[in-house]
Amino acid sequence: MGWPIRVLCYPTGDEECVLRRERILRDAGVVELLSEGPYEIDGFKVLGRGHSAVVVAALLRSGDVAAAKILRADSKRDDLMLECSLLKKGIPITPKPLYCFPELIIMELIRGIPLKMLQRRITDCDTAVLTALKVIGAAHYLDRVGINHKELSDPTNHVFITVDGRVKILDLETASVGHGCNVCRILSWVIMRSHMLEPCTEGRKLSIEVLQPQLRRYKGGDRSAILPIMRHLNAIKQNA
After folding, report:
1. Whole-angstrom distance between the N-terminal and C-terminal Cα of the chain?
2. Are 54 and 21 in contact, with CB atoms under 8 Å apart?
3. Cα 19 to Cα 145: distance, rounded to the nearest angstrom
4. What sign does the dihedral 84-10-5-40 (CA atoms) show?
5. Span 5-109: which CATH code?
């Protein structure tokens, strides 16, 4: 089979790099990289193309399709091992890694819709609030296990809702271990920058200041403060 050379070692296509990564992929049980996704590299479709890695659909020997995250040849990152560790830590909210190597990760392929597209389709208050609560709940899980995502101030391309309604948070490239406030970032986006709560009369009037006391407690380490935050948002639906 012909491997997409420029994809394997984007953007250089260095021969030594390509041969090495071909071996790694075969050792991981990958039999083919599939042209699938919204982006293209030399006519080959990929799932994602970021500053440090390319994500490609990969057919496994088992017949399953996974996602292969491949370090760019010009990446400033040394390897993907920290990201792999964080993915394991974040299960079930993060994609499950299947094989981890310094230069690539084979992981669960998420089938679903990004929050960017989903929020445009929400037309009723019940769905709006339920979606917001589910996404905030996922961010809370990452806070509890000690993953600071850092990119959730605009979660539209990092948060997916799967075909069976679960929330998955992707792209842990800049994430770190330690105390952060993913909930704060998501909540600020929901209230101040998204259109998610527009179908709710009370949601249009809600400001982040209303929840500041609870958010201060939460950021200070009192994770139980998530409960009044969730109750407050749920009340919007009941008052719609």
Report:
1. 57
2. no
3. 37
4. positive
5. 3.30.200.20
Task: Give Cβ neighbours of residue 70 (< 8 Å, ≥ 6 apart).
Answer: 7, 8, 10, 21, 53, 54, 55, 56, 103, 104
Query: Where are the domains positioned within the chain?
Result: 5-109, 113-239
Per-residue pLDDT of the chain (240 residues; tens, 9 = 90+): 568 999 999 999 999 999 999 999 999 999 999 999 999 999 999 999 988 999 999 999 999 999 999 999 999 999 999 999 999 999 999 999 999 999 999 999 999 999 999 998 999 999 999 999 999 999 999 999 999 999 999 999 999 999 999 999 999 999 999 988 999 999 999 999 998 999 998 777 788 889 999 999 999 999 999 999 999 999 998 766
